[in-house]
Amino acid sequence: MRGLDCDVLIIGGGIAGLSLASALAPFAAVVLVESEPTLGYHTSSRSARQLIPSYGPAPVQDLTRRTLDLLADVQAATGLALTAPRSFMLVGSESDVAAKAHGSMRQLSHAEALRLGPQLRPEAFTAAAIDTDCVGADTDLLLEYHRRRAGDDGVIISTSAPVTAARFDGTTWTVRAGRRSIGAGVVVNAAGAWADGVARLCGVAPQHLLPYRRTAAIVAAANAPAPGSPMIAAADDSFYYRPDPDGMLISPSETELAEPGDARPRLGDVDRLVTRLGACTTLGITAVRRAWTGLRTQRDSGLPVVGFDPAQPGFFWLAGQGGYGFQTSSGIAELAVSLLADVDPEDLGADPARLGAAAEALRPA
Ligand SMILES: Cc1cc2nc3c(=O)[nH]c(=O)nc-3n(C[C@H](O)[C@H](O)[C@H](O)COP(=O)(O)OP(=O)(O)OC[C@H]3O[C@@H](n4cnc5c(N)ncnc54)[C@H](O)[C@@H]3O)c2cc1C
């Protein structure tokens, strides 16, 4: 077995693990291991690619705004087109829209909503609200940006390297990952739907992280929204859709408990969604080009879990990002770096009070 030593071993090569690897690399010797032959294979390649600052609990909204700022800095410095403006509009009954329209959302009149979503049937909703501070993200490019930046700063990334055993001797972890034995001062659990399983494998109590299925599909439609149109979501969580370079993206917005694994769409789920969209819109979906399912993993509180485990020294949680993993990624990575490398937040360009509040809200139970 080949040996390797590092300060920090990150388990999981999705957006959580990769964004941390690239942010932490200047401060520590980092190794990242991923079970699959390719990075980002699980939930991180299956998202709707939208970053919505009004979405989620208050700490998530705050981390999303910080992520948008950090990504804008990256875009300005590199010229990479990581994000582009794309509004998010909620439609539904007065009470459903009122319950969800917080943060940077503002109410829209029925006529304004129909102008922005001309495919909506007028009788299908009575209230609407919009967040114009949102962006669509090129998530493949973002994953690749983090992979490359991490590699350039010396992070060793090992794929086809599932962690199968781990032991802590009081100061150092010895972790078996594929054919390698890795020594590390700190283990970071960025294992997505498998995060509680990885914790158990390390002898750490779980955080009660539960994976929930969500399906999406790319479809062709006779009356598809024009490029640049908002993403439109039903406030009762029964669908969303948005324009896509390959046609149109649709989702039934389901939140169904699942087991960790390679989730697949179920027969009938997309057909039922097409029928539902036919009742609420004049989109005229003609063909389903491809469909996929991913797992959104979260705690009951809906908040990610980020920080050192309270009972196990050297074990750091970076999990439970639910439906917010991309939109919070850079903000969470910044928080994690401040905790892992004990860096002064001001040296990271971060507001210490804001980071302190986020650390408190997201700390492991
Ligand atoms: C349909 C859908 C739409 C979504 N839309 C959005 C959106 O618009 N905006 C947004 O911000 N978020 C969205 N999300 C959520 C977002 O995709 C997730 O929050 C994010 O991808 C989670 O990233 P992760 O790195 O935690 O998990 P993952 O991408 O699943 O990565 C975890 C990795 O850990 C690896 N791993 C597990 N166990 C081990 C082990 N023992 N050893 C080594 N490696 C291991 C896995 O193989 C996996 O690659 C959506 C999700 C879905 C399903």
Q: Which ligands, by name, code or SMILES, are bound?
A: flavin-adenine dinucleotide
Categorize the overall geometry: globular
Number of strands: 20
The CATH topology of the largest domain is given as: FAD/NAD(P)-binding domain
Mean pLDDT: 97
Strand content: 25-35%
User: In sequence order, what are the helices and strands, one letter per element?
Assistant: EHEEHEEHEHEEHEEEEHEEEEEHEEEHH
Tally of separate domains? 2
Number of helices: 9
CATH homology superfamily of the largest domain? FAD/NAD(P)-binding domain
Pfam families: DAO (PF01266)
GO cellular component, one term: cytoplasm
InterPro entries: FAD-dep_OxRdtase, FAD/NAD-bd_sf
Organism: Arthrobacter echini
Keywords:
8-stranded mixed β-sheet; 28% helix; FAD/NAD(P)-binding domain; D-Amino Acid Oxidase, Chain A, domain 2; 9 helices; 20 strands; alpha+beta; globular; single chain; 9-stranded mixed β-sheet; 365 residues; binds flavin-adenine dinucleotide; 2 domains
What's the arrangement of secondary structure elements?
Blueprint: E1 2-11, H1 15-24, E2 30-33, E3 50-51, H2 58-78, E4 83-85, E5 88-92, H3 94-100, E6 106-108, H4 110-116, E7 127-131, E8 135-137, H5 139-152, E9 156-158, E10 163-168, E11 173-177, E12 180-189, H6 195-201, E13 210-221, E14 231-234, E15 240-244, E16 247-251, E17 256-257, H7 269-280, E18 285-298, E19 305-308, E20 315-319, H8 329-340, H9 352-362
Parallel strand pairs: 1-2, 1-12, 2-9, 5-14, 12-20
Antiparallel strand pairs: 3-8, 4-8, 5-7, 6-7, 10-11, 11-12, 13-16, 13-17, 13-18, 14-15, 15-16, 19-20
Bound molecules: flavin-adenine dinucleotide.
The site of flavin-adenine dinucleotide has 41 residues, from helix 1, strand 3, strand 13 and strand 18.
